[in-house]
Amino acid sequence: MRQDEQLSSLIGDIYDAALDSALWSAVLGKTRGFVGGFAAVLYSKDANRRSGRLYYKVGDFDRHYRQLYIDKYAKLDPTTTGQFFADIEQPVSIADLMPYDEFLETRFYKEWLRPQSIVDGVTTALEKSVTSVALFTVFRHERDGMVDDGARHRLRLIAPHLRRAVLIGRVIDLKTAEAASLADTLDGISAGMFLVDAHGRIIHANASGHALLAEGGLLRSAGGKLTAKDASAEQALHEAFIAAGSGDAAVGTKGIAVPVLERDGERYVAHVLPLTSGARRRAGTSYAAAAALFVHKAALEIPSPPEAIAKAFKLTPSELRVLLAIVEIGGVAETADALGIGPGTVKTHLLRVFAKTGTGRQAELVKLVAGFSNPLVS
C-alpha cells in the first residue's frame, strides 16, 4: 500500500476509534507501523503528582517494566518536563527535550529503557490541562535506530487526527457507540451534538443541542443551517463542514477545539468529526450528514504551576527539573540520585536557578514554588 493510501486508511480508523474505544489497540498497532517503531502508547502524565496513566498500548512491552514505570520511574522520567512545554501536535524526540548525552546518564535510561533496548521515542502532546498532559508516543528499539525526520514527519501527519479522536472520545465518554445508530446513541450525552451536511444544514440534534439553540446565545438555526453567533467560530466551523464533506484527510486540522464565545462571555469549545468514511459512514449515509459537531463548555485555561514558573523566570527544562526536585526532595545529593545526574550538574543548574529567580537559598525556592502552586499566596 502506498503511503498516501496507508495514511488515508489510518485516519479513517483513528476517527472510528473516537466512537468505539475498543478499536484503539488496533489503531495504535497501525500508527506504530506507519510512524516506525516497536511500540506505541496513548497515556497521560500528571505534573504535580509526577505520575503516569496508561490508556492504550501496543508492542512488546514487558509487563514487569510497565508496572515499574507506574510505581517508580514515572517520578524519575526526565522527559516529562519537556513534554509539558512541547507545542500541541508537535512531534519531539528525546534529544529535542534534553541533551541526549545527559539523558544517557539518568537512572531512568539506565534502569528502565536500556534493559528493554529502547533508545528513543517520538512523542506528540494531544491535550494539556492545568496539571496534566495527554501524550502519544512511538518508541524506538535499537533495531529501529534513533528518531529521524521521516518519523517526525509521519507523526505530524496523523497528530491532528489523533487529537480530534481523543478529544471527542473524552467528550462523549462512551465505551462503544454503534455508528449506524449514532444519533440515537449520542442523544443522552451532556455535550450538544449536531449532525450536519457539508453546508452546515442541521440533520439531527440531541437534547443538549436543541437546548443550546433555544438559548440562542451561542448557536442558532437560520433556515435550517447551523450558525455561530461568534463570527470567527462561524468561519472556522463553515470551513470544517465543507472539508468534512471531502473526507477524513481533507478536514485536517480544521474544526479541532474551535473556541466559541457566548454573548455573555461564557466560553465553549467545538469539535468536528467527519462522517464520510469508515464505520462512521453508515451514520452519514443514514442521516445525509457529512459531520458530527460536539459543543461543550470550555475548561479554564491556565498554565500549570511548573510551566508558569519556567516562563516567568526563563528556566530551561533542565533547570526546572532541578528546581522542582530540590523543592520536593531537599538536598543536592538526593536530587542528583533521583534525577540520575552528578551532584556537580545539580549545583550548576541550581546556581543558574538562583540567579534567574533572584534567590539564594533553597528555602526561598520552596516559597517561590508554593506561591505559584497557590495563587492566593503572595
Question: What is the element layout, followed by pairings?
Answer:
Layout: H1 3-19, H2 24-35, E1 39-46, E2 51-59, H3 63-73, H4 80-85, H5 94-97, H6 100-103, H7 107-113, E3 118-128, E4 132-141, H8 149-172, H9 182-186, E5 192-196, E6 202-205, H10 207-215, E7 219-222, E8 225-228, H11 231-244, H12 248-251, E9 258-261, E10 267-274, H13 281-287, E11 291-297, H14 305-313, H15 317-329, H16 332-339, H17 343-357, H18 362-373
Antiparallel strand pairs: 1-2, 1-4, 3-4, 5-6, 5-11, 7-8, 9-10, 10-11
| Global shape | globular
The CATH class of the largest domain turns out to be Alpha Beta
H/E topology pattern: HHEEHHHHHEEHHEEHEEHHEEHEHHHHH
Terminal CA distance = 60 Å
As for the CATH topology of the largest domain, it is Beta-Lactamase
**At CATH's second level, what is the architecture of the largest domain?**
2-Layer Sandwich
What is the typical, i.e. mean, pLDDT?
A: 82
User: What is the number of strand segments?
Assistant: 11
Major beta sheet summary = 5 strands, antiparallel
Key terms:
single chain, about 375 residues, alpha+beta, Beta-Lactamase, Arc Repressor Mutant, subunit A, 5-stranded antiparallel beta sheet, 4-stranded antiparallel beta sheet, 18 helices, about 50% helix, globular, disordered C terminus
